[in-house]
Predict the 3D structure of the following.
Amino acid sequence: MDTLMLKFLAISWVLFMVATVRYSTQMFQQNSYRTERYNRWLRSTGEWYSRPNIVALMGAVLLGVTDHWCVSLLLGLWMLVIAVSELSIEYKLKLVYTMRVKRLLATRILIVMAAVIPVEIYAERYTPVVAMLMALDYWIIVANAINRPLEAAITRWYYNDAKRMLRSMPHLKIIGITGSFGKTSTKHFLYRILSERYNVLMTPGNFNTTLGVVRTVREHLKPHHEVFIVEMGAKQRGDIKEICDLVQPHVGIVTSVGEMHLETFGSVENVARTKFELIDALPTDGFGVVNIDSQAAYDYLKSIERRVATYGVCRVEAEYRAVNVSYSPQQTSFDVAMQRGVDEGYATHILGRGNILNITGALAVAEHLGVGVEARRRAVRQIEQIEHRLSMRRAGGVTILDDAYNSNPEGARMALEVLGGFVTEGRRYVVTPGFVEMGERQYANNRAFGEDIARANCDEVYVVNEVNRAAITEGLLVGGYDVAQTHCVASFQEAMAELRPKLKAGDVVLYENDLPDSFK
């Protein structure tokens, strides 16, 4: 192989490596740096046999049997095409170059060097073959395995440092919030209400893992904070307990129990056990609050001996219950019935029964922590919409109901209630990919979701991605929906490209869930 062709092949390989390594690292990050989840994703999406992997394997074979310039040229061009197409894609969730990602990338570079340099020295003929094999996606798994002891040591140091900081503030009131859905909204609502009396810190964004809480403590917790609200997410048993062991909450809210992450939990009962790890972690004088409108939470509550307060909208036995709920185009008004009486005169411009439920849970904790009723009313009136959680915006006379961060059946039903009850002379549209990570229940839940859409007074539906297409469309048909009004598209961008020319003033569009890039 002449020098010029070798340089061309090397440049093509470098660009190919940059593109493929970025993608595999990005997907590894979206799968929470967990090898078992990443492997499951590789199998379920067919990425084991992706174009880059096929190119790498075929390139290694071809270069192993011949170094003809024609083979090298074709292989180089093939790698360039894939690299350019991959690098031009705009992903919804971009790769975040955290220190962990940087260490992963550094280790992967060292693996490549450790493989290529000795071959270059002792068997130069096979350097291109080895180089092509090093471009396979699977090396991210090897790099992660090599880094695991280091990552564990770093995590342990950060964890202990955060624990030390928390113990240095014995008067800090720590509130844990968990649930299959509603926890982020409840966190924001509670933050706003408690801020009427206290200096409050909450975990930002989706920092609801142990490491997210550790990072919040180390970077944001200050001596002047009086209350720390901790959102607690879970994808397997013990996740909530691990966070509770760190922060040792005094107050806990379970917003719901539902069919989320059943691939790892296995059953709704296991979901309930995990969510109630928060209640189990409270001290004897702690205050637990549970949403009993959530049937699974209500059922599980009967099996525990601990005394907790309850809240809801539908169940009359709830100790904190939103009553006299009335809707208008400007606001939602409601009262809160408690054991001691009724607090009247609450009003908010936040949409939906689900959000009234979340506000009620926040009000229960606020009352327990001594926030006065007038301050609570004032705070509820001033609560702002939370982006992508059934938030509403208008553009050119079109109303957008953005529920893109909701990913569960119960929350979707509540969003469809809002859409179906929306007063408009225009048309109603739903854009959705359905729900994922539900194990054996995924098909049934998405089929039921299709039936819910069919009953929601919706004019057209855009089913995004392939992962739940068959289930949702089957549900729509069972619900009697007109197949001509159902559109199956490959991406959210394709859905909007088709939908935008149709939209007119008065139309309403519901975005229900938006899967990350790891789902096709």
Remarks:
- The longest helix spans residues 139-167.
- The domain at 169-382 is CATH 3.40.1190.10 (UDP-N-acetylmuramoyl-L-alanine:D-glutamate ligase).
